[in-house]
Structure formats: structure tokens, C-alpha cells
Amino acid sequence: MTEAKRPREIRTIYDVASRAGVSIASVSRVLNGQGRPRTETRERVMRAVRELGFVPDGAARALSNGLKEVVGVVFRRVSETPFEDEWLLFVDVVNRGIQVAAHERGFDVLVSSIGLHDQDASPRLVAIAGKVDGLVVHDRVLAAHGMPRLAGTVPIVTLNSAPTPGLMNVRCDNGSGMRQLVRHLVLDHGYPSLAYLAGAPSPDNRARALAFEAEAVATGARFETGPAWQGNFSASGGARVIASLLDRGGALPRAVVCANDQTAMGVMQALGRRGVDVPGDVAVTGFDDIPVARHLHPALTTVRQPLQHMGACAFEVLHGRIRAGRAESDVVFPVQLIIRESCGCAPSSGSERQSARPWVPPTGPVAH
Description:
By secondary structure, the chain is of the alpha/beta class. Helix content is 39%, strand content 15%.
């Protein structure tokens, strides 16, 4: 007869503390992501965890503090066609930041989406809220007036939304980025005319449009905006606007400033199909600096917002509210103008360079 396998010895937090040579409280803080344990303490605890094969009892820990240890992330699908949603190029990078930060804290992430034409997302959000400890809600999912009511049932952090009293929000400094971009096109390149190809209605789009107009006026450039330049944050939307303009025999501005990188991709494709050279005839710029932007031909000049860091910050703000009832009300990330070739700049020795003409906000720091 073969010898029966001995049951695996169950290790406890006491074993980890003994092996690491620290207190049980220190082990608990490291494993639960609480406080700010010293780097040496964290390393000793995690080494002991690995050596002992210790598995934290997440279910028991959650039960003891009343947490599910799950956060929800909800975004709006731009397209109703399965597997063809260009918006995911942006959303996936942000959500990746949320997931990395959540997993470091021992939380799982429930990702859900709301249909493009779903007029009332409230029931869906309420159902998700019942399964999680808190929600990260991307812009345009729920109207501003519906947020406070939902926030009364579960902690909420909004991403790229307008600051709302009583709610937590994480966003980038849209105005700074757009001002840097317009000044580069007008003052550094000398382009006399610009157009802003807008995205779908949203706080981000509105802030970028207002900053574009203000800086175009300040620099003395002619500019175009309005219904003829209305896109929807997608490459197909940008291509449609350019095709419609050229079909009507309209004149192109010297530079097209797009609401985001996907729009710029569509604009560059549509111009190329009509024999319009980018940037020789028309310069094109984007906003966001999604990973593919640097691989376009020509490489895309754009404004970089730290998408993954914004996602991670959204989780940390939410985690602070869940664990301790505290959180910043409005976190604003600085942005960088990334100069590549689509604006008319010559290729540099590297793949990109930052603007030599930074825009300094007139009042106070960027982060609030």
C-alpha cells in the first residue's frame, strides 16, 4: 500500500509574523494595504509569505470588516457592434491602471459597460453597486444629476467628469494641454488657420474646445468649430467629417486639432485617401497619447495624459473612501505636449520630444 499523503500544514498570520520577525499588526498592515509600513518591513513580510506558502483568507478578512473586496468599473460603449468599439483603445489603458492598483490592495475588479443608446443607466448601475464596495464610473455613463443619488448607496469616483460637489473625481488638465498645442501650431509653426474637430459631448470635449478657442483668439489665428466639425471620438467619425467637408468643396485649414487620438487617426486616413499630405498640406494633432499614436505614419503629435496612472489614482481615491471614509474631492493630473511629425516637426533622434514651450497655468498648482 502506498503511504497516504499527509495533509498540508495550514499556515497562519502568526507563522508569518514569527518568520519575518515582526508583529502581527505589521503583517496585517502589509497584507491589507493599510498604513505605510517601511519598505524593509514589507519585504520581510512578503518573503515570509512566499517561503511559507501562506495564502491570506480573503473571504474571512472581508467578512470581518464587512467588505466584499470588489470594486466595479463602468464605462459607456461608443459602438453597439460587438468587438468594434474604438473607445476601448482609451478605456482599456485606464482600466488596466485600476486593475493593477486594485490587485495590489487585494481587491478584485468587476468591469461592466452601458450601451451607447441606453438612455437610463441608473438601474444597471444600482444592480452593479449591490455587488461591490465602490464604483469607478467613466465619463458619460450617468448624467450629473443622477450621481449624488447613487453615491448615497455606495462610494463613487468619477473619471474625466466635471467636478461635482460631494463626489470624488479624477481628470487631466485639459485646458493646459490644449493651450500648449495651439501655441505650438501657431507660434512655433506659424500656421494661420486651425479647426477643432470635436468629440462627443462630454466634460473633456467641452474643456478642450473652450481652451482651443481661447488660445486661438489669444494667438491671432483664424479658427473653425461648430456642427461641420462635430465628431464622436472615433476614427470613423473623424474620417466622416473630413470626407463630408471635401465632398462639399470646402477649404481645409492649415491644421486640424482633434479631440482625441482616435479622431486624428481617422482624419489622417481620410486626408491620405484624397491625396492631401500630412503634414505638408494639413497638420493633424490628437489628444491622449494612446500607445498606437507613436506608431502612425507620420507619428502623431498629441497631448499625453497619464492614462494608467489616472486609473490607478481613481482606485486609490476610492480605496481611501472605502477604508477610512476620506478622499480627495477633485484630483487633476498635469499633461505633456508630445511633439512628433504630424504637426510638421522634423523627426528627432528619438521617437518623440516634449514641447520646449511649456504652458504655465496662471493660478495655483494643477492638482487640487
